[in-house]
């Protein structure tokens, strides 16, 4: 993997990354297509039009579907030629390891050193997933970047539990690395150049986080993620952990903050040295009629937009704002028409993708801090 920092301002960095599926300009927001599609009837052609660089899909969800339980979803996708062909997407894909989803099934799983046994949320059948299984599923999918299988402990769990969990995650990471190397050497792999990112854990305990960052940094992985944040702790606690952890991760490798977040969260994390982001907020909020603008978030269900002829945001180049009024989109949402949700999702993803381009431009010009303050101040207003 070729990853080169092109410009920096403080700890904020603007980088270029080359992959077998094309280049990635960072900082980047990865649009979340959990089951190989963005919720809201958004096609891959739409994603290209709104400037999407990377799409994220989920290992666990694509293991349980498609398929009937006798043949796993990832095996079917492998027979199809991999996830890129299956979903008609020729740009980079990152697959989450499934660890977060597995551990969110707290009442349906059992953790051992070998891995985790749990029940499918689809049909209740028993599934086992460990580091090797997660790597095998992601290898079948052929994603550009595979995430290591980790345990994601509750951020407010007891110290003793978090320490044991982090140690297990380190052992699992070493197994992931060995299995990924084995799989990439096989002759039938969809993507024999698949990258592996390790995940830092440790709740909100700075000393545990720092120790773990140093341990995984020694493994010379393709990239590093900070996981287990934005799961109940305050934004200030999240920023405190990033301040402590990111400097301990290899600066010459990409850094990914998993599951984050709001535009404000992203701007704060970029300032702390993060490259990659993903979050369901723009698509989820869009499906509920909430649209992001540079003057604050608006709720298009509000009656005040009933006769509003303006686009969601003046000057926005997204497909929704180029052609449709707030009044029309509100009508669609109120009528339960899918087009209303689709237009809001497209607008929100375009807003995020455009913000990332603005961030990259600002870092290149040495103007990121000023841009960040201006952007946050605008978004805290009431549109």
TrEMBL record:
The active site is at 96 (proton acceptor), 278 (nucleophile). One of its GO terms (biological process) is tRNA queuosine(34) biosynthetic process. Gene3D superfamilies: Queuine tRNA-ribosyltransferase-like. Keywords: Glycosyltransferase, Metal-binding, Queuosine biosynthesis, Transferase, tRNA processing, Zinc. GO terms for molecular function: metal ion binding; tRNA-guanosine(34) queuine transglycosylase activity. It holds the Pfam family TGT. The keyword Zinc applies. Zn(2+) binds at residues 316, 318, 321, 347. Its EC number is 2.4.2.29. Its cofactor is Zn(2+). GO terms for cellular component: cytosol. Binds 1 zinc ion per subunit. SUPFAM superfamilies: tRNA-guanine transglycosylase (SSF51713). It is an enzyme of class 2 (transferase). Residues 12-379 form the tRNA-guanine(15) transglycosylase-like domain. Pathway: tRNA modification; tRNA-queuosine biosynthesis. Residues 259-265 are annotated as: RNA binding. Catalyzes the base-exchange of a guanine (G) residue with the queuine precursor 7-aminomethyl-7-deazaguanine (PreQ1) at position 34 (anticodon wobble position) in tRNAs with GU(N) anticodons (tRNA-Asp, -Asn, -His and -Tyr). Catalysis occurs through a double-displacement mechanism. The nucleophile active site attacks the C1' of nucleotide 34 to detach the guanine base from the RNA, forming a covalent enzyme-RNA intermediate. The proton acceptor active site deprotonates the incoming PreQ1, allowing a nucleophilic attack on the C1' of the ribose to form the product. Belongs to the queuine tRNA-ribosyltransferase family. Homodimer. Within each dimer, one monomer is responsible for RNA recognition and catalysis, while the other monomer binds to the replacement base PreQ1. This is Queuine tRNA-ribosyltransferase. It comes from Stomatobaculum longum. The gene is tgt.
């Amino acid at each position: 993997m070729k990853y080169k920092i092109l410009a920096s301002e403080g700890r904020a960095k603007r980088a270029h990354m080359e992959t077998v599926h094309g280049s990635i300009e960072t900082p980047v927001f990865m649009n979340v297509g959990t089951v190989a599609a963005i919720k809201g009837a958004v096609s891959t052609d739409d994603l290209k039009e709104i400037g999407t660089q990377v799409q994220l899909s989920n290992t666990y969800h694509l293991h349980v579907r498609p398929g009937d339980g006798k043949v796993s979803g990832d095996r079917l996708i492998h027979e199809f030629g991999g996830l890129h062909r299956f979903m008609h997407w020729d740009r980079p894909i990152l697959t989450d390891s499934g660890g977060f989803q597995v551990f969110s099934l707290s009442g349906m799983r059992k953790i051992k050193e070998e891995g985790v046994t749990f029940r499918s949320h689809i049909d209740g059948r028993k599934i086992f997933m460990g580091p090797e299984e997660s790597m095998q599923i992601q290898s079948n999918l052929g994603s550009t970047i595979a995430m290591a299988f980790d345990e994601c402990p509750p951020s407010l769990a007891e110290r003793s539990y978090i320490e044991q969990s982090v140690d297990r995650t380190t052992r699992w990471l070493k197994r992931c690395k060995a299995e990924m190397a084995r799989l990439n050497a096989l002759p039938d792999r969809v993507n024999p150049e698949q990258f592996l990112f390790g995940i830092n854990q440790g709740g909100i305990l700075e000393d545990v986080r720092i120790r773990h960052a140093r341990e995984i940094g020694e493994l010379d992985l393709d990239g590093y993620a900070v996981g287990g944040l934005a799961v109940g702790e305050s934004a200030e606690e999240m920023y405190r952990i990033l301040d402590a952890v990111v400097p301990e991760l290899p600066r010459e490798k990409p850094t990914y903050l998993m599951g984050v977040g709001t535009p404000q969260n992203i701007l704060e994390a970029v300032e702390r040295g993060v490259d990659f982001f993903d979050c369901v907020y723009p698509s989820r909020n869009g499906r509920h009629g909430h649209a992001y603008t540079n003057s604050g978030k608006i709720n298009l269900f509000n009656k005040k937009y009933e006769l509003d002829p303006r686009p969601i945001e003046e000057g926005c180049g997204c497909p929704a704002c180029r052609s449709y009024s707030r009044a029309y989109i509100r009508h669609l949402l109120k009528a339960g028409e899918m087009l209303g949700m689709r237009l809001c999702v497209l607008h929100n993803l375009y807003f995020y993708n455009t913000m990332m381009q603005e961030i990259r431009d600002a870092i290149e010009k040495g103007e990121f801090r000023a841009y960040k303050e201006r952007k946050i101040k605008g978004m805290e207003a009431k549109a």
